[in-house]
Amino acid sequence: MASSAKENSPLLRVEGLTFAYPGEISALADLSFSLSAGEFVLLTGVSGCGKSTLLKLLKREIAPHGKRSGEIYWEGAPLSRLDDRDAASLIGYVGQDPDSGIVTDKVWHELSFGLENLGTDPAVIRRRVGEMASYFGITDWYRRDTDSLSGGQKQILNLASILVMQPKLLILDEPTAQLDPIAAADFLATIHKLNRELGITVLVCEHRMEELFPMADRVLVLDEGKLLLSASPREVAGLLPKAHPLHSGLPAAQRIFAKLACEGATPPLTVREGRAYLESHYAHLKGAKLPVVPVTEGETVLELDKVWFRYTRNSPDLLQEASLSLRKSECFALLGGNGSGKTTLLKLASGLLTPYKGEVRVLGKPIRKYRSGELSRVGVALLPQSPAALFLYDTVEKDLLEIAKGNIAGGNADAVRAMADRLAIASLLARHPYDLSGGELQKCALAKLLLASPKILLLDEPTKGLDAAYKEHLVQIFRDLKADGVTILTVTHDLEFAAKVADRAALFFDGEVLSPDSPRTFFAGNHFYTTATARISRDLFEGAILPDDVAQLCRGGAQ
Fold this sequence. Notes:
The chain is of the alpha/beta class. The protein has two domains: 4-243, Rossmann fold; 300-393 and 432-540, P-loop containing nucleotide triphosphate hydrolases (Rossmann fold, 3-Layer(aba) Sandwich), CATH 3.40.50. The strands form four sheets. It has a six-stranded mixed beta sheet, sandwiched between helices. The protein has a six-stranded mixed beta sheet with strand order 16-17-18-13-19-20, sandwiched between helices. Strand 9 and strand 10 (226-231) form a beta hairpin. Helix 10 runs parallel beside helix 21 (547-554) and helix 15 (412-422) crosses helix 16.
């Protein structure tokens, strides 16, 4: 917890903040809290509860338009009175899309851009930029084009270009949403280091609570625009009702502890504490294991056969003899680093790109022999990284009705309502797609795809922006789709989701799909591309990759 000294000198204070978007769409309701200088605060809540709206209201330049009451104070004075220069420099903001925060074509220019706009002396700009580039290890790519950077490098650049202006408060809205697990862990560790070493106050909104809970001084839990909890990370697990949707997103050590119904003991928070807890209480079960579900054979519906691809004649190959076969009714999870070529593979599988060597086959037919538009008619559907690109109309409902019109004979409105209920988006139908949060947009985009009755679903980061409870809902939707004969290929950085939903998983590296296997075998054998549960239970249990697995073995349920 933050010290009492910090609590007595709030840097930022929110009092009775209420906000509604045009059309009386309520987002925040009588919200009050404060941030103390030097605090590290995690903001969390289910998708659409008002987190992003709140963060944008705290950053005056990007505050949304709508009806607002209440007040935000900065160092005791209303935020509205802060002069433009201080508002721009003292409160930094980093969003979830690494590309959207970059405005120039060169790394060095991006670093200096904010200071140039503030009219800072050139000599001071050079000194600050040099210091920041050295701190973040940017020197090796200092003169590169910004569009040549990986997702992780772009997000580091976004952060560095904000910090060069020396803010007192750093606001981050799901900054790791598009980063691979290793890049995300490095980015969050950097944020924590900045907080500890420079005393920068941090307010971060994230669904990736595994890494952030141990870092945070305090956790704010939003629920339908209201503050439900403000407590230390260790206290939240005990205060948050087990039936609350966020409970399934707590760190794995806390969820394992809760499933074992341990009364009176202090709940573990980190992987290390979770391991120590299991070793002290369940060492007598060492060697217990869960069976590996065998990978079953079936009809091949999508195949990449020794595919090679590069974007330009002189650029490096992103795919090099990449081969992959998907069977009917299976879910295949493809993992790997940012920029490794996973999205490119999805575009090749969907027919958006063409390999220069090798072949892609859909339902046994070479993809090059399909006419324009024919792939969608035979049931291939792609969820892109930016789902906003799927929407053409000013309401979600109009988009869904349009897709239903061409795929469902009669009863279009009924079909849309049924799909909205299935994906829990009925309250979003009247909204403009661009007014939705990232998680809400993901749900609506998936609804649009499913209304087309696909046979092969190609999904690029389907859980991006989704809270833990909705991911559980999505797991069941995937299972229902597989039972209906749908094949799913998902590119994801969400390791626990992949462990729950995939029949097979593989790592994409150096242009190839490496060693596909069952989730138990794949995740149990990895150190970094694995779940927190697997790291907690390693060397004690075999095949335990999810909290339910550990609970089953601890209760004597090993096979």
